Amino acid sequence: MKRVLGLLILTLVVGCAALSAGAAAQEEGAENATAGPRVSIVEPTEGAILAGNVTVRVNLTNFTLVEPPGEPDAPGGGLLHYYLDAPVPANASAPAVPETGWYAASTNTTHTWENVTPGEHNLSVQLVNDDGTPLVPLVFETVNVTVGDDAAVMNLTAADFAFDTEAITVPAGAVVTVFFRNEDQGIPHNLAVYDSSLRSERFFMGEFITGPAETVYTFIAPSLPGTYYFQCDAHPFMNGDFIVG
Description:
Blueprint: H1 2-34, E1 38-43, E2 49-51, E3 54-61, E4 64-65, E5 77-84, E6 102-106, E7 110-113, E8 119-128, E9 140-148, E10 151-158, E11 167-170, E12 175-182, E13 188-189, E14 192-194, E15 202-205, E16 209-210, E17 213-220, E18 226-232, E19 235-244
Parallel strand pairs: 2-9, 4-5, 10-12, 11-19
Antiparallel strand pairs: 1-3, 3-7, 5-6, 5-8, 8-9, 12-17, 13-16, 14-15, 14-18, 18-19
């Protein structure tokens, strides 16, 4: 009798769990079905530092890209408008063409802006109808990025309280990517760049990592050629020349 009762209880528990899981799945499916269209910028991320061409990649939810453009509106579908340094158009009765900046209509989830000038820029992506008018309510996302003149990639290692180089050379205004490795067990190190050993002006300060560990630093080099200074902020005797050509 006890065995039969135990089996009945176990069956009830398993059944309740299955019903709960099914209800949760149905609820999630219903939420996705009733949610409006959305767009999110996957790359680049907010505050990214880039060089040269800038590729924007997006993710879509509850929205279908329709070809060819200019056809009558299809329910739940339309086009993407990519913007560079442009205000997102909000007039629902007119094509989403900004008065300033640049835009591109597309049925692809990626778009590349070529030869973007160095400096700070904003990138936006908007969902529009087949005729180019904005969705109502507006559906868009914007990120801000910084673009450098050139690109410089290097490795830097800290071991036995010393960097493995006494000089780092990069082009002026370059996007500098440093693959930094700290080999000192239990010791924090970082990379920081200053105008000189007096450290009156700081151009970059990387986060500390405690060894053994690795990280990647990305920053913009000074725009004026000259000899600057780098160090580990925790151990200033670890230093060298940061040469901008």
